[in-house]
């Protein structure tokens, strides 16, 4: 190899080594597509748009929210899993795509573990066990005693089979050895409406949609499913405080991209996400919804998702829940 060839080889190697950094510095040169696997107007959609607007300030680039609902978030997941891994397609991902669906469906068009780049967590939605105000159980201990004394006779509502609300009650049943009858609805709104109306006595309710009705007294919260009490409902004890250990129930979400995204781009998006989670508008919106921020690294987000998948896989198998 002569001197000219040697210098050319060194230059090529340096360019290759610098290319991830160069890509991160150049990214985003175009608008970023943010897939939301739910219809417009729901908690996930509103939060995605709020965070996207905050990230736009630091990215100096447009983020276009693209709602792709259907198939328990699998439609949106397939779109993103098959997208070009250049950082221009990301998505909101929650319990369904990260922890439930691989156990609820016999076959998925993607692997949650193998077909995505994990970018970072956004939030956690605490869940509460609620009853209609007329229900005779006034606290958690009385509720547990009542359902034990009336096996299979107490109905509970949920937004549908395989929803976090449904599986939260399956976990409760598993941990307490109780039997309640599931009444699935097509969405959280009609399920909550019937609990508020007294047609169904109870449900697990996420605070993102249920905090106002709890605070107004339209339903009574008996327990919170997170490890610590929530600031919005300081007088409502946790399940753990009432003796139900290893029974945390919450919905969580974060950002995924296609597998193979350049690490430097993943880190850039994560960095802007961390800044967005401290943005006053985002902080206020989360507080209004009763959400908790879920900051951290891509690795921490993936570890959480995998741990939750293992935990809920056991619950789903024990309950025999399937969506196909």
From TrEMBL:
Annotated signal peptide: 1-24
InterPro entries documented for this protein: BUG (IPR005064), Bug_dom1 (IPR042100), TAT_signal (IPR006311)
One Pfam family, short name: TctC
Family: Belongs to the UPF0065 (bug) family.
CDD domains: PBP2_Bug_TTT
Presence of the UniProt keyword Lipid metabolism in the record: no
Protein name: Bug family tripartite tricarboxylate transporter substrate binding protein
Keywords annotated in UniProt: Signal
């Amino acid at each position: 190899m002569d001197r000219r060839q040697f210098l050319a080889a060194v230059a090529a190697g340096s360019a290759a080594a610098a290319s991830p950094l160069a890509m991160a510095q150049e990214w985003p040169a175009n608008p970023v597509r943010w897939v939301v696997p739910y219809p417009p107007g729901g908690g996930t959609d509103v939060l995605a748009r709020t965070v996207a607007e905050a990230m736009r300030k630091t990215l100096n680039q447009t983020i276009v929210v693209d709602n792709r609902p259907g198939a328990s978030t699998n439609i949106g997941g397939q779109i993103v899993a098959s997208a070009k891994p250049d950082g221009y397609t990301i998505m909101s991902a929650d319990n369904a795509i990260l922890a439930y669906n691989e156990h609820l469906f016999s076959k998925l068009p993607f692997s949650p573990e193998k077909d995505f780049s994990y970018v970072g967590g956004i939030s956690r939605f605490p869940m509460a066990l609620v009853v209609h105000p007329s229900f005779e159980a006034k606290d958690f201990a009385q509720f547990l005693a009542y359902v034990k004394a009336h096996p299979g006779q107490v109905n509970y509502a949920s937004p549908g089979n395989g929803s976090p609300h449904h599986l939260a009650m399956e976990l409760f049943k598993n941990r307490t050895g109780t039997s309640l009858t599931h009444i699935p609805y097509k969405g959280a709104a009609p399920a909550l409406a019937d609990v508020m109306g007294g047609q169904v006595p109870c449900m697990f309710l996420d605070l993102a949609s249920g905090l106002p009705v709890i605070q107004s007294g339209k339903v009574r919260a008996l327990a919170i499913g997170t490890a610590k009490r929530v600031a919005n409902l300081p007088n409502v004890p946790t399940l753990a405080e009432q003796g139900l250990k290893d029974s945390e129930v919450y919905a969580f979400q974060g950002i995924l991209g296609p597998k193979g995204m350049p690490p430097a781009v993943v880190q850039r998006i994560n960095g802007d996400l961390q800044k967005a989670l401290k943005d006053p508008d985002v902080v206020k919106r989360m507080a209004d919804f009763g959400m908790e921020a879920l900051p951290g690294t891509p690795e921490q987000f993936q570890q959480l998702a995998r741990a939750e998948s293992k935990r809920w896989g056991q619950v789903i198998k024990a309950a025999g829940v399937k969506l196909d």
